[in-house]
Write a structure and sequence with these properties.
Elements lengths: L1 E2 H7 L5 H9 L3 E3 L2 E3 L5 E2 L5 E3 L2 E2 L7 E6 L28 E3 L6 E8 L2 H8 L7 E8 L4 H9 L2 E2 L2 E2 L4 E8 L4 E8 L6 H8 L4 E9 L2 E2 L8 E3 L2 H13 L5
Parallel strand pairs: 9-15
Antiparallel strand pairs: 1-4, 2-3, 2-5, 5-6, 7-9, 7-17, 8-9, 10-14, 10-15, 11-12, 13-14, 15-16
Helix pairs in contact: 1-2
Amino acid sequence: MERLQKVIAHAGVASRRKAEELIKEGRVTVNGQTVTELGVKVGSSDKIEVNGLKLEREEPVYFMLYKPRGVISAAEDDKGRKVVTDFFDDVPQRLYPIGRLDYDTSGLILITNDGEFAHKLMHPKYEIDKTYAAKLKGIPSKELLRKLEKGIMLDHKKTAPARAKMLSIDKRKQTCIVQLTIHEGRNRQVRRMFEAIGHDVLKLKREQYSFLHIEGMRPGDRRELSPHEVKRLRAIADHGKSAF
């Protein structure tokens, strides 16, 4: 279910703000009933009319993007910075990212126009695994990595169980690469988890989202998800999955 004004905006009829005005003015009906209050939610089977004309909804599309560093995980930016939807100028649908990656973090992010699908995947109760490769300053001990796996305190709340694996060590430069798999989505969580054990993150890349992987892709590359991949993600979102 999505808010009515959001559905109208995604159909290209009007901006979100203008859609809200149309609703307040009584120019929108849902299943034949006039709606004048904001906050009403509609599903895919609801019949919506704006000014007496049936709303034609966009065909849902699903993409994965290898987000480069220095790109905002948003559909637009008031500061004029590059955003993830800039890589989809040839796609007519109004797209937005599922979740976010920090400005300085690269890697896999999903892009869609399906709000219900996005909402399910972002809901914390479904515990969808996200795997990162972090280049760290210094080399954490096995004990510190186990501490990450068990959970550490961030903002007075313990992080959920995780998986940590040392991938490589550069003793001369005193750096290493650690793979970390989590299923939460707190703000800058991966960086803050490593900082909490005394190791700053020099580079961070999300390599995997659930079963999807960016192997073979380069920053800026994108591809459309197959119907089977979308169906599989829906199943994970519907039933929940934790690898731990």
